[in-house]
Structure formats: structure tokens, C-alpha cells
Amino acid sequence: MADPDSERAAAAGALARVHAAAGPYLDSLADRPVYDRSAEKLLHELGGPLPEGGAGTEAAVELLLRVGAAAATTSSGPRFFHFVTGGSTPAALAADWAASLFDQNAFARVSSAFGHEVETVALDWLRQLFGLPEGWGGALVASATFANFTSLGCATQWWGERHGADTVRDGLSGLPRMPVLSGGYVHASARKALQMLGHGRDAVEVFARDAVGRVDLAAMDARLAELGGPAVIIGNAGEVNAGDVDPVADLAELAERHGAWLHVDGAFGLFAALSPRTAHLVAGIERADSIAADGHKWLNVPYESGFALIREPARLGTAFGMPGAAYLPGPQDPGGGYALYGPESSRRARALPVWATLAAYGRTGYRAMVERHLDLAQHLARRVEQAPDLELLAEARLCIVCFRAAPPGVPEDALDDLNRAVAAALLDDGRVYAGGTVYGGRAALRPAIVNWRTTADDVDLFVDVVRELVSRLRPAA
Ligand SMILES: *Cc1c(COP(=O)(O)O)cnc(C)c1O
């Protein structure tokens, strides 16, 4: 019978097994399929009833590694173009292992001065990376969904204050519904954040001037004038279908004129700031009140990693502090920390991979990576334009290429079905991976390129596989 105490000496051996598996797994990323359906049959080996007597450390870890090495989706590899999925840089991966090794509770300075200080540095480096002014602060959170939640939580507190209310203490009752305005690019997770905050996901009023969702500034301006009181604007830096960006500076202008809070969801699009080729797309972000972004996308750190950056960071402590427990520090106490500036309480030291990857590659390394991805997106867009059976649906401004299959001779009214079939077949095939969507009313594919490992060969293989599937699935003439 094994228990942790009888296995005191086993940790180093188990870690050695992980280490031994790591090299071959990382080496295989360049070639292995993204998804291998045949490996799913191994998953039952992890099931069955809860063991009474455990198998012991090494046996359990060995089984997990054997099944995982075969059945894991290669989402950290170079050909996972679904969603917006980064990999892990070498430094981020190693530092993430270190975060588990040290097992810090980055709750506050009193639980881990190390975790707290590294987070402070990591947040300030992120601020500098995106060219935001000094004085901005933030918190590392699990994802951009939580970063939207954190930002909109601050916005809610601000909005309540404008109504003479303390929403943190008293909630929303007795107040009107908080007005939230956005263009058609607003992400589902911003709505989810509003639903978690008690505003409801339909709190968002959408102002779009076309089927794609480009923001209608004039209509938004008119609505803000009509409201005449505090409101929240959500700007979208990185629309998920084609990577387009709302005109952030124009939204900042509206926010300033009407006294609104401007939140920018920059989950991946914020990284446009890293290259002079794309920085104009996010010009004006420094005029926002809050920004949400992801680490596990374009920063290429392991899951779960997101961050909220706030112009007035003291609002984080106001919105997320936890007064009333005598054993806990308050937000302003020297022993306080990020658990009091964001939604989570106990939390892992997710700052370590963020710190390590920025320490390892710096501003120039990240700029080079982003520009490689911009080039690869252009390469993919050109290959789509050259293929007689494919049609580019939007200019690729960042890292996403939105296109559809449109082989000559296939009527327009058959194209949506064809594209849905191609998208499904792509996931089933597994050599490369990308998702289907609907863009401007048309079924389409939307590969996103944000993994540091991706090469032009990977992009070429993607186009070849898509075209092979199109020729197999297109209706007979
Ligand atoms: C991915 C994404 C999100 C949500 O991010 P998670 O990390 O999955 O929570 C929010 N907004 C945009 C624009 C995104 O692309």
C-alpha cells in the first residue's frame, strides 16, 4: 500500500520520468499529427473505479505519461491553428515546471514574497511591452475571460460610484442597468464576464454598421449622448474571425467626450503593439481605463495565463478586496497582494513563466516572433488567393486568415454546407487543425497563427490538406 508518506523519496524519480518523456515529446511536435483519433482508445486505461490501494507514485505517473504522450492533442505544436492557441516558449515551459516545484501560494506577499515580487515585475514588464504609461497596474489571472471579468468588475465599481452607490458592498440592487456599448466584434467571454458580474450577458448594446460587425461610431455616439450618464464601452482589439481591430483611438475619443469607461478586450490583438508594422492598429490603448489580454495566446506561456491592466490600479483593491476576515491582510497592508486585486484568492505563481519568457527573449525577441507570425499570415493569405478553389474573405491584418472553399462550378448556395463539411473533416483528419466559423453570414475557416514553432512548411501543409479535403468533399458537378 502506498501513501505519500511512504513515498517520500519518490518525487525525484517521478520528475525524472517526466523529464525523460519531455525530450522525445517536444522533438515529436514538429511532425506528429495535431490529433490522432486512434489514440483515444488508450483513455480508458485512466478510468475504472477509484483505486482502493494506489499503484504508487512511479506507476501512476508512468501510466499518465504513456497515455498522455500518445493521446494529448498537439495544441502546443506548430499546426494547431484552431481558436487562438499559443505554445510554450522554452523558458516559459521550464518556469512553469518551476512554479509547480515551488508550489507557491501567490495569494499575497505574506504567503509568498517571491511569488508576489515576481508578479509585480512581470506585470510591469507587460505594461512596458505594450507601451502603457507608468502608474498602470494589474493582476495576472487565469485567462482573458477572467481578465475581462476583472476589468469589468472595476468598471462596475466605478459606475456604481458615479451613481453614489457602493456596488462592492451592496451589489446592484436599486440601480439602473449598467449601460455597456460595443461593436459587433464583442467576444462571447466579455458577455460571460457581464453575466458573472450580475449585469446579464445581454447588457451589451451592439452598434455594428455591417454584417461583419465593424463598429458604428456615429450610432454609439448618439446613444451615449442619449444616455447622458456613466456608461461602459468595450473596444475589441482582435476580432476572432479575421483579426480585425476596433478603432481604439476613436472609441477613446467617445469615452472621453461622454465620460464613459473604456475597456479594451485585447486578448491577442494587444500584441499588435509589439511591431511598428501593426502598432497603428492599437494606437490609443493608453487612453483606455482597462485592458484584458491573454498570456496563453500570443505570449506563448502555458495555460492558464491571462492579465488585466488597469489605469487606476487602486480600483482592483476596491473591487476585489476581502475585508472582514481577521486573519487576512487588507489590500493596502504590506502583507497584502494580488488575491486582493483580482477574482481569485489562493493562486499558483503563474507569474513565473511570464517573467521567465520576458527575461529570456525581451522586447526584441517578442517583436521578432510577432513579425514572423504576421509574415506567415500574409503567406497563408497569398496561398489562399492563388488557389482557384479557395476565396479570401477578409484582409489578414494580424494573425488570423479568414477564407472559404469556393471551387469553380459549385453554386453559392452549396458553399456553406461545403465549408462546414471541410471544417469538420479537418478536425477529424488531424494532420492540421483549424475551426469553422460564420463570417459576414458565410461559413468559413479561420486559422490563427500565434505559436512560436510554426513555420512556412506548416502553413503550406495546412493549405494542402484543406485543398485535398475540398476536392474530396465538393459536390460532383
Ligand atoms: C480568446 C479570447 C478571449 C477569451 O480568452 P480565454 O483565455 O479563452 O478566456 C476573449 N477575448 C478575445 C478577443 C479572445 O480572442
UniProtKB/TrEMBL annotation:
Q: Which cofactor does it need?
A: pyridoxal 5'-phosphate
* Transferase as UniProt keyword: yes
Pfam families according to UniProt: Pyridoxal_deC
Keywords (alphabetical) are: Aminotransferase, Decarboxylase, Lyase, Pyridoxal phosphate, Transferase
List, in alphabetical order, the GO biological process terms annotated in this UniProt record.
Answer: amino acid metabolic process; carboxylic acid metabolic process
Tell me which family the UniProt entry assigns to this protein. Answer: Belongs to the group II decarboxylase family.
Designated name of the protein: Aspartate aminotransferase family protein
Query: What is the source species?
Result: Spirilliplanes yamanashiensis
